[in-house]
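Each record in this resource describes a single protein on a pair of labelled lines. An example record follows, reproduced without changes.
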Amino acid sequence: MAEILVLVDHLDGVVRKPTLELLTLARRLGEPSAVFLGPGADSAAETLGRFGAGKVYVVDAPEVEEFLVTPAVDALTQIAESTAPAAILLPSSPDGKETAARVALRLGSGLITDAVDITADANGRPVTEQSAFAATYQVTAHITQGAPVITVKPNATAPEPAPVTPELEKRDIAFGPASAAVQVVSRTPRERGDRPELSEADIVVSGGRGVNGAENFAVIERVADTLGAAVGASRAAVDAGWYPHSHQVGQTGTQVSPQLYLAAGISGAIQHRAGMQTSKTIVAVNKDADAPIFELADFGVVGDLFQVLPQLVEEIERRRS
């Protein structure tokens, strides 16, 4: 079977969920091989093998840690040139999309970003599904030149184990002068709470203008904590200073695609819809029966969120007890 390269997204050797999703999708196309950059490959190998990576290409060079994305571009390009993969998959993070664009240019390949699904056609070529024009249309596409380079949104699929024993192969990379053009001088770990990452969460609970104040976001947070969800906010709520900008969902914020998206007090402007329209199930709570969000929702509740959401929490807790 054809080899499919998957760039590993990890934090100090701990493999993040989007990589497991990429490995699952890669198995539809061929035999997944992971490309691991930086230290920690030995500890990550078991996880990568559990989700089908038969080979792990390891690039443990100081350049990977000391500089920005160009060393990753050098590494992925040179590994692709030597292995001739049938496709290259990367996460749709800011770094992932920048790396993908540069790799595609160097290889002379076509590029697809923000795919929400990948399948193989009758000839074994990757066929992607994407949301286009602010999520107004769903389109399918395939690349006609070179090894397809594809970035995939988190939650495109559920990770499915397919255990194998991976072979680790260390690679020496010839880093070009551009790799040292911008150096990382310091790093400050971001404060992380107990809730899931917004972009990776299976469930997202978001509040909008209808929350009517920063102090009222406690209602949104309570629902999120009951469901084990991430907290999101509309641009209106963020611009009003009610919740941090890092939690904004929308075209100019974080684009999410969870299994369940609960929108409370959000009217459903196109800017917000563009960031969450690919969610698998959408539930809306709004006291305005004509709010545009109901056109998109799978389930809708016309009512005051301050009455509906506490009842939702009570019912969830009752069913769990």
Notes: The longest helix spans residues 305-320. The two ends are 49 Å apart (CA to CA). The chain has a mean pLDDT of 94. DSSP finds ten helices and 16 strands in the chain.
